[in-house]
Amino acid sequence: MGQFAGYPIWLINLDSNPERYESAKKQLHKLGLEAERFSAIYGKNLSQAEVAACYDPALNQKKFRRPLSPGEIGCYLSHRTLWQRMVDENIAMAFILEDDIDLEPEFLTVLTKITQLKHWDMIKLADDRAGTGEQKKDLGDGYTLVNFAKVPNCTTGYALTLQGAKKLLSRPKFFRPVDVDLQFYPELNLTVYSMLPYRLWSASRFESEIDKMSGGTRKGGTSFWRNLKYRFQLKSIRSNHLSGDLSQVQFTPAQQDEV
């Protein structure tokens, strides 16, 4: 089992993408890390009953701008399965990575500092839009923990506590893509931070599996008014909330970091 400081590292990978797994595994090995591979759920293979058990189309119609694609449903269910494993096995914290990643050597420092933090739910390890956050908490060595008015998209990599997993599972069914759902953190009382600078990036050399499964687009099924309502909901959150209170996060660095 892949671990860092006693916490599991899980790597989400479709069976049909061994090249992605090998790329991520080699990069992790260079840093002295191993990850436990999780066989990702292929959305198109789900039965109607399996989709109905996890996906709520009525709430999707009400709270998102378009129906979810099979790829998005499979992606969400993959992450959700790992969250459930945390609860079932009482895992205090885990690092969850998708397979289309590029790692910098300093990624080890990020993992070390995360293990020295308390009182948080989720810390994103990557950002597809390079958001800088709203407020900062100094973690030393040039690293800061930030909160957001506009939580960045992507679930390329993140750390999650057991408390955070329970909050994410508090809905019986989902109705938005998993990365978009994180932007609606007040609904779940979820704290979402990022540690900057990022040392993990989404690898552009790999084509999005969700786009491939969706025929290259995920824009069908929307309307002007549905899209407008969704954007108003998101704007309301960004105008009235921050994704966490940094003063509540406790940072206790070791006397001498060993990375």
From TrEMBL:
KW Transferase (keyword) present: yes
A Pfam family reported for this protein in Swiss-Prot or TrEMBL: Glyco_transf_25
Location of the Glycosyl transferase family domain: 8-181
Keyword annotations of the record: Glycosyltransferase, Transferase
Keyword hit for Transferase: yes
GO molecular function annotations of the record: transferase activity
Family from the record: Belongs to the glycosyltransferase 25 family.
The name this protein goes by in its record: Glycosyltransferase family 25 protein
